[in-house]
Amino acid sequence: MDTHASNPTSSRWRLRCRYLPMLLVAVAGVMLTASAATVFYRLSQSRQREALARLADQRTQAVELALRERVFEIRALGSVFDASRRVDRDEFAIATRPYVSRRDHVTAIEWIPCVPSAERHRTELDARKDGLEYFQIVDPSTTGPPRPSPHRAVHFPVYYVEPYLGNESRVGVDLGATADQRRRLADVCDAGRADVHIHHPATTGGSKQLHVLLPIYDREGTTLTVEGRRASLLGYVRGIFDIDRTVRTAMQSVGAERYDVSIAAGDDPHALRTRTERYLECRTIVLAGTSLHLCSHVAPAASELQTLHEHWWAIAVGAMLTIMGTAYVYRRSSQVRRIRRLVAERTAELRASNDRATALAEKAQAASQAKSDFLARMSHEIRTPMNGIIGMTELALDSDLTGEQRDCLETARQSASDLLNVINDILDFSKIEAGKLSIASRPFDLRESLAATVTMLGVRADAKDLELLYRVDPGLPRQIVSDAGRIRQIIVNLVGNALTFTQKGTIALSLTRDGDGSVLRGEVADTGPGIAEDKQTDIFEAFEQADTSTTRDFDGTGLGLTISAELVQMLGGQIGVHSRVGQGSTFWFTVPLTAEGGAQAVEAKAVGLRGRRVLVIDDRAFNRDVLDEMLSRWGMHVATASSVDRAIMDMDAAGDPAFDVAILDASLPREDAIAAAQCLARRAQIDPTRIVIMIASTARQQDIAEFRGAGFPAWLTKPIQQDVLREALLAALGEDCRRDGADDHTARDGGISPRKLRVLLVEDNRVNQRLVQKLLGRRGDDVTLAPNGAEAVNTVRRSGREPFDVILMDIQMPIMDGVEATVQIRLFEQSIRRHTPIIALTAHAMAGDRERFFAAGMDGYLSKPIQPETLEEAIAAAISHGIRA
């Protein structure tokens, strides 16, 4: 008999002894952790206070510098009166408007002339002739409209003000209307220096203003005496600055979100303190003879921003050590019991291992079959939103856009199409293995097809600080017959492979004619690590790389090269690679070339460039050669150089520096792009508007704005496309750059019925609903939506005397499909002798579908994805001609 088990007292004692060591370790750990956290908290608070005090001094100094700069700027603006006694409105605006437009803290810059009473009438007449039609010297009024100033010996009206908008009420106001104001003006005149004071606007909620008043004298009559200053006084220049904005602007570069700075004039800087503000530093400065007090205090959110976490780290580390110590004691005390339990669990697992292995083998076999079905279903579901993205992008492209916006949307549309192609290629790999992948050959524009793709690849290259060089042989025909999507897919795969494995340097893509001109040859050369000779065949196998260890450094499975090799073979060409370890790689492919036209159309567009002299400056010889080849083919006289200095030396040596236009790379080494362009414009006698800047694909809008602000509005993104370069040069030279095809677009639009239509859209997919609604809304049509066939039938029956002009009917819908809904609508219309055109919208294009839809009573047929042109043509055919499209 177990005496311990039968004795409750003994059991409780054993339980206490078992957990007592863990309890002691936990209590000791908590106490030590609390002590360490307290010490770290006090240290962090002390460091925080010291750091806040140092930073507050920096903020106060920044505000002091900003206030002194305001006084200096007013003195600089006053220098415009040194050259002339009379400054007209245009001269004042030219001097002050650029300064005002660049600074949001400027409320107004005013010219206040000294007008004797005898000259008042003539001054008012001169002001009205100068553009101030209703100018009159008036006294300020807070209770009503201003009144004309009474007779005084001298008037000080606000004559000019910038900015004028928002400050119209200041014009004509006499600053000498009160004795205090006249005394201040007289004191400033006698002192002969600027005066600074703080003004509190009377309007509710108005912020403090800094007024800087500068006297202007007739320099010929100025003396060092007070009487001389009074006799030669011309007037005053006054600057009004918003103090809150001035403070924010001054503190933006030093972390203004943590501190506030208060400013006041007077003798007591402590008058700024309040019970709720925590001041860190106060400074008194003398600005133009006026004492200003600057007090820096912590902003409301600063305590949260400055929170230090050393004590929390101490608590976390202490808690972790306490838990680890407690766990260690517990583990040692229960080691035998835990080992027995683990042995029992492992034994049970071993007994079930055979059953699990059998079940897993069966599941793996079923998963292999289900994988293909799941992949097919998901790819189909992804295509639907991608069609919506492409459709909405095309709608945006039809709106009024800038050239830059159009390029971005064109790239987005092409990228979406490429993504849709990648999704299709996931299934293509399975089709390739099954021998069921098809190739569709039709005519297409080679350069236009690759333009957006190269732009997209250029953005990826810029993101890795690589340069993508791009060359298309000008002798290649513009129209060729092949599968455009497959050729583009091959190029994307090869360039993408180069981008993956190249860490620095360049990637060069070139398309040329090979052999007797009947073969298109593409090459992608990179400066990557290279491929060992014994691995150059394996990389074209599925899921293979040159070295398995590179999976730690580079992404990719090798599937892209495998698909590219299969596509090239299906197109009737060849693919290969030339590479050496450490010397980069060159992937090449060839496909048969069947021309549908030549380059004559391109040459005709470049007639305006023939005979012009062009200077090309780029540090890369490949780029210079490509540009030289294109420009020379257009009949231009080309000179190239690797730098601006080299170009200037060549021009000086030739003795003929005149050029019609120049192309300059913005990323020349060791040169500032704007300074280089300005030097080139000056030395080569080229108008800045005729200098085309080549910038990276990822250039910021700020960089482009800097070029434009410096007078260089023409720019191109790299890699340079032939058509875009041609249009940029024609625009810079003042030639007509209108794109071909504008008349065709107008002709197509002219074929659509101009009257507003009532359209019933029967569609359950929200993406397709929005797409069709936007397409029809652009035409001005009134669209009614029905989410299923049953709702469409009810809507037609309720239409009464306002029938629909056309019905767009989806086929597959819940509750009632499109075919059944059409039958019900036709039965209803027979009773009221009406016939509404119905056009089918469907993704099905199986044999016999058209006949089945027409037999149900439909008048037209439109397959998805929906294109704007085909939709308009189908509606026009159904309404205007009554035929089945």
Descriptive account of the structure:
This protein has 885 residues and is an alpha/beta fold. Helix content is 48%, strand content 18%. The chain has 26 helices and 29 strands. Helix 2 (8-78) packs across helix 7 (243-251). It starts with a helix and ends with a helix.
Biggest beta sheet summary:
5 strands, antiparallel
Shape: extended
Mean pLDDT: 75
Which residues sit in consecutive blocks of at least 5 with pLDDT less than 50?
A: 1-5, 549-553, 598-602, 736-753
Radius of gyration: 40 Å
Structural class: alpha/beta
Helix-residue proportion = 40-55%
Can you count the helices? 26
Oligomeric state of shown chains:
single chain
How widely separated are the two ends? Answer: 99 Å
- What proportion strand? 15-25%
Number of strands: 29
> Strand sequence of the main sheet, in spatial order?
6-1-9-8-7
